Structures are given as C-alpha cells and as structure tokens.
Amino acid sequence: MDGFTVDIEPLVTASSAAARVAEDAGRADLRGALQALGAGMRGSATERALARIGVDWPAVLTALAGSAAGHADAMAASARAYRDVESDIRRRMSG
Amino acid sequence: MALLVDVLRWQPDAVEDAFRRFGQARDLLLNTDDELRAARPPAGWAGPAATAAGGRHEQVAEGLRRVVAGITALRPVLAGAADTIAAVRADLALAERIATERGYFINPDGTVLATPRAQREGGTQHGELVDLVQRALLRADELDDALAAALTEAAAGRVDDGTGDTLSGAASYVLGAPGAGLPPAGASPAEVARWWNALTPAQQEHVLLARPGAIGNLDGVPAGVRDEANRYRLDDEAARIATERAQVQSQLDAATAARPQVPFSVYGTTAEEDGLLARLADLDRQQTALGQITEVADLDGRRLLLLDLDSGSRPQAAVAVGDIDTADHVAVFTPGFTTTVGDLRGYTDDAAALRETAQQLADERGDGESVATVAWLGYDAPQWDTTFTADQSVAGDAAARAGGADLARFLDGVNASRVDDPHLTALGHSYGSTTTGYAVQLASGVDDAVLFGSPGGSTADLSQLNLPPGHLGVVEARWDPVADLGSFGGDPNNQDGVTNLSAQEEVGPGGVPLQESTGHSDYLTPGTTSQYNIAATVAGQPEHRYLDEGGIGFGDVLRGGPLPRGF
To answer: N or C: fewer beta carbons within 10 Å in chain A?
Structure first.
C-alpha cells in the first residue's frame, strides 16, 4: 500500500503519551529493589539467582523504556512528515 | 539447605526495603496504564508507518505487562519474608542462648555438638536444640527457594500475564480471584482484622490493588496497608472529581442554553441550575481538600489512614506520623470546633512535634520504645455556619456523639490490626475532647486519655469511660474560657478521679524550663508544660508529669469555686 490516511492531532497526542510511558518506565527502579534484596539475603539461593538476573531484568525495563521513546519519536516524526506533505499540497493548490 | 552462618547475615530491614521498592516500581508502572492506552496509534491511521507503530506499541505494552506480572508474582512471596527472617533469627538466637547456658556448641553448618561440660553434666537438650535449629533452617530454606524461583520466573518473563491489554489487568490476572470477598458491611474492627489475617499474601495484594477504596478507611486493616490503599485513591479521587465536574458543567451549560436568553433578562437561574451550581461548588471544595490532603501525605514519614471526601458534610482525613503498626505507644489526637481538612497540615505538625517530645522521653527514660501519633480529622466538627444546625451545632453534643462512634471504631481498629497490644492514648482538644470522651465510652482498648481545653468530656460519671481508674488526664490553661464551660458532663477538671495536669511554668527534666501555655490554643506548643505532660502520658510515663493541684479556672469561680490561679 503506497498511500496513507491520518488525522494528525491524535497522532501527536499518542506520541506525547508514549513519551510519558518511556519516562515512567525509565523511573521504575527495579535495579534498586533487586540490590536491596541481595543485601538482605547474603549467601542465599536468592542472592545466587540475583547474580544471574540482577542485570538482565532491569535491562529489559530499560529496553522497553527505550522502545517506548522510539515509538514516541517515530509517531512524532510521522506527524511532522504528514504535516509537511499537507502544507506542501496546500501551498501548491493555493499557488 | 541454607547454612546457619548465612542465615544469621540475612537482614529483615533490607528485605522489607526491597518489598517496598518493588511495590513502588510496580505502582509507577501501573500508573502508566492510561498513558499506555493513549500511546496506541490512533484509529483511522493507516499505512506502513501505522502498521509499524502498532507493532511497536504492542511490543512495549506486552513487555511492560510481563514486568508487572513478574513483580506482582514476586511481591506476595516477599510480603512475609522480613517477618520470617526475623522469626528464624529469633529461634536461632534462642538456640544459641540455650546452647551457651547448657554447654553445647552450634556449628556454622547448623549441627550441634555437646561439649565435655554438657557430657559431664548429663545434658539432655541436644535433641531439642537440633530440632530447633533444623526447623529454623528449614523455614529459611523454604523462603529462600520460593524467592529464588519467583525471581527467576519473573526476570525470564515467564509469569503469565493473561489475555488482557492493560497493566492492571496483568496484575489482577497474576493474583487471580481473591476467593475471600470483603468483610460484611458493619463488621467490627476485630472481625475486619480476622478477615484480613485469614487472606493469603496474594489475596491481600489482590484486594489492595483491586479494591483500595474498600480498605483504605476500613478500621481493623493494618495502617501500612490503609496508607498504601489511600495513596492509590488520591489519583482515583482526582479523576472522579474531574469526570463528575465535566459532566455537571455540561449539564449546567445545557440547562442554561435551554433557558430563554433575552437581554436584561428578568429570569434568574432555575432550580435545576442552582442544584448543578451547588454540586460544582461542592466538587471544587473536594478538589481543594484533596490537594491539601495530598500535600500533607507527601511529607516524609506520614501515613494516610483516612481519606473521605464525600460521605460526610465535609471532607475528612487522618494522617499518622510514625509507624502505627509497630509503635509501642500510639496516640490519636482529635481537634475541635471549626476544624476542617484545611487545618490538616497544622494538626499533623502538632502530632509530629508531640511524637518528637514523647519519643525523646521514651529514649531518655524508657528502653527504646517507639511512638507514633495520629491527627484524626474523621468527623464533621461543628463550624460557625452550623451553629444553628441541630446535629452539627457546637452548642450541642450530637456531632461529638456521632464523631465519637467513628473515633471509637478507629481506636479499636488500631488495636485489632496488631498482634500485640500497644499503649493507646486518646487525646482531645476543645470540642474534640467531647468527641474523644464519647469515643472512650465505646472503645475497648484505650489505655489513657487526656482532654485539654475541654468544654466537657461527655459524662459526669467517669465509670462510663472505658479507662483504667486514674488514667483520665485533664489540662486547663489560664485564660481558657472554653475549658470552663462545663457543658457536656460538667467541667472535667473538677471531676473526682481526674488527674489534673499542669499548664503552668515548671522546671522540666534536666532543669530545662517549661513554658506556661495560656488561652485556648497553645496546649500542644512545643516547650510548654502542657505539651510535655501530654507527651509524658503518651510515652507511658505518668510518674514524670507535673500535676496541677489547683485545677481551677475563671469559670469555676463564677460557679462558686475558689479563686483561679494567678489571683
């Protein structure tokens, strides 16, 4: 499919919402919680499990925050592109 | 199996901190639910970019659902972990003590040896010690295994998040059906506490997440849980007010548009418009109150134990300073005439200062016992504009009776929600002392009460108060006319069996001067004798209070008593 249809303002709104999701997901401190648990359970199976997953799990969240930010940027870029096309067409038609 | 030497290094406080941090992380993610929904590519957007955006949104949403599901599955396992570790360590400490006393030696791996001394003395505790140590280590092992497994599953994203598309849906799915409902309406605080304690940690989490409105104000539920539930409700209440306000405004606009519009109209607003305008004003009051409550709840160390914006004539709230669930001494302070949640900050600051003084006394003279205080604004205190409203007039006791019943439930709830029995003190100022008096007639677990600036403590017969004899204190400052009104059960400072506490200048502990408080509003001012006396009562140190042998005020003279102090 080559063409597109879009209402630009809802796209801008969705982009802003995605940016806020990225921000909140980035603030959720999974790493701090895991570190506190490790400090409380020295020499345990829990601590050994934490050694395996203590980096990966927070990294998943960081990656998701990054994806949400990318999602926000992509929608914002799309909105800008659609707006440019629209402006261009309007200019041509009025010219 | 876990080694004894390792288990002894486990730290309940750090594990409790981890539990709290996981909760914060989960709450932060749950709060993004609305944003996540709004971040979905808009309907009607079609084309390759739209398809790509849809896929990306679904990938983020599913990833976040898995994280929320993982944390949600982990929290119930972690919920009792700190208590379990503390109990295991207590058992091991007991075993160590017995071993030392009886000549045994506990190896770092948990095995028990009888020393030559035990053999010589024919000790018989070997089996008992082995059993005690093994049971403790087994319990530690079970907890450790469960935590390690829950962590591994959560981090691998293997916790099933169901088929819904929201983060809260994922959390609810993990916790499953509560299977326990809610306690029946009208259940006593003791019944509520039994219901709560019978739930599994997962069920408790489910109720907390799914029904915060049902338990935030429920007397008998632990204070920490009430606080968490009410903090969820701050956002819910803001959304409720905004939604209803928009609806009412829209109805008002429609009603106004339907009215004949003519220049210099002789038409006033219609009854329908008046009703809608009144509702808008009420919603604005709720919004203001919500802001005031949120501001106080956000201060460090505060716990929001009551949040009620719309069931009474005015918004109500109660805020604790300190940990009500564990404090050895708990005091609940009820203010009086003209109180609204607009005063919550000031009264919570009073409660904080009182706690500080009481804690200081406990630290200096006690054995490190802890103190927590509550500013309870949980009733419709009389206002100037309700003076001629029968059930809310400051001249009558109806508001105090109704408020006293609610306060009694709150006080009983503090006791019922705990496994131990804290030293509980009810404090009432002005009309709040009358409310407190009625509460103490109904509540069963109050150990001490202090009424200050009291127009009457609800009864002339102190035997009607559920207090141990001699445990009702009264403070009356010079030039406090309210304290001499003698309106509700008589002037408390003249009643037999009351302990009159000084509000005069005194030389305090260590020679530090304590200031006199005068008038009606300085009883809780730090550095005064009255605040010190109230704090000493709260800290369970009645022997260190300064008594007021006179106990006579100006009003007493008018009624034929001896001259007041200072004359």
So the answer is: C
**CA–CA dist B85, A37 (Å, integer):** 13
The torsion defined by the Cα of B71, B58, B158 and B179, in degrees rounded to 10, comes to 60
What pLDDT is attached to residue B77? Answer: 87
Q: Check if the beta carbon of residue B509 is closer than 8 Å to that of residue B544.
A: yes
Parallel, antiparallel, or unpaired: how do β-strands B316-321 and B302-308 relate? antiparallel
Gyration radius of chain B over CA positions: 29
| Interface list for A 39-78 with B (CB within 8 A) | 39-46, 48-50, 52-53, 56-57, 60-61, 63-64, 67-68, 70-72, 74-75, 78
Give the closest of A5, A43, A71 to B60, CB-based. Answer: A71
The one-letter code for the residue type at B181 is G
pTM over 0.80: no
For the stretch B156-179, pLDDT in tens is 988 888 888 889 888 888 877 555
In chain B, count of helices (H) and strands (E)? Answer: 18, 12
- Is residue B134 over pLDDT 60? yes
C-alpha distance across the termini of chain B, in Å: 77
Neighbouring residues of B146: CB distance < 8 A, sequence distance ≥ 6: B77
Predicted complex ipTM: 0.91
